[in-house]
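Worked Example 4.2. Read the sequence first, then its structure tokens.
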Amino acid sequence: MTAWLNRTTIALALLLLASVAAAVGGLVLAERKMARVIAIHVKPVKLITDAAHIDQGRYLFNTRGCADCHGSNGAGKTVIDSGGILVVSPNISAGERSAVLHYKVEDWVRTLRHGVKPDGRPVMIMPSEDYNRLTDDDVASVIAYVRQLQPVPGRAATVQLPLTVKLMYATGRVKDAAEKIDHSLPPSTPVDAAVTVSHGAYVANTCINCHGAGLSGGTIPGGPPEWPPAANLTPGRGSAMVNYPTADIFIAMLRSGRRPDGSPISPLMPFGSLREMNEVDARALHAYLKALAPRDAGQR
């Protein structure tokens, strides 16, 4: 009996040591991955700072999630403080603790489109995959708008992740934006802003980070455990779109943050941005989601 207990104790101790070693090794891999240098050559877009481009940049900033994460003034704010995750977005105005004060135009392009910082390291948390397909003109408009924001003091960027998320990141179950993006793709070809499926597909790029590249939703990798799964936006099994047969009902949800039955949708949805979306974009988005090939919920 004593011998059996000794063997069991030794086995448990070895298992514990192996677990600790795996955790330490995973943390080392995660840190190395965060510090890796990604060689991305980009061409600067042509900035035009006339009123039309500034207005377009303002519209995109306010409807594509930029204001939700960085604040309407660009100063940055706490984006996530839950489940052991703390994320404070950087100040992207030219004020105190600005993260972009010395950005060249190509640095903006590299960060927005490719999820790569000027020093070659990957950005963390920022969903550059949502912005990778922006046209040159729209990228230029966003940059032009942000660069004319009034300088305001902000907080230093913070990304604190718990051990579990770091291990998922180390093993590829959680990916940074640079891993998700096909860096070989050329910029998107502009399409007319109209209530069409093609324009809706362009607008829908802003949904990728949460709902997945296939827009079928599911658990958001690395998110706090209390986060609900993202909805299936395709017409497949478990689709949320059955609740929105018409564009008018869909737009009412974007504006109110509530389902047709009046129940609130999770505030994880960036309704601050979505309610600013104009009628053309919202109706085109609805048309595109209704035209998607059906996928079962949770396939992302």
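Now turn to a second chain, presented in exactly the same format:
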Amino acid sequence: MQLLVTLVFIIAGTIWAGFLLAALFGKLFLSLFPARRVSKKWPANGVEAEAIILKMERTGLYINKLPQIRLQMQVRPDKGRNFLIDIDTVTPPAVKAGGVVRVKYNPRNYKELLLVNVA
């Protein structure tokens, strides 16, 4: 019986120490070995496509005295399926809802998208 109680305390202590170490060093471990690395080279390898602006709304932020706009767009790539994306950007006044723009996106991560020019 004494051996069983001792083993329970050892196992509980080991589990507790493991949780404590995970809490202390988990953030450090995740920063050293991220699950997904963002490529800095994607704009050069990005895919150009046409996008239709579905909705525009102001975010309330100003960048260099210009309002930041949230755009909801439907991107229509030459190959593959259309997809919807929301981006926050400072746009020229020529951009209107229903307008068509050229964009460049990362084919591995559709959330990485740049406006190329206004059509």
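Notes for the reader: Residues 36 and 116 are 26 Å apart (CA to CA). Helices lie at 2-32, 42-45.
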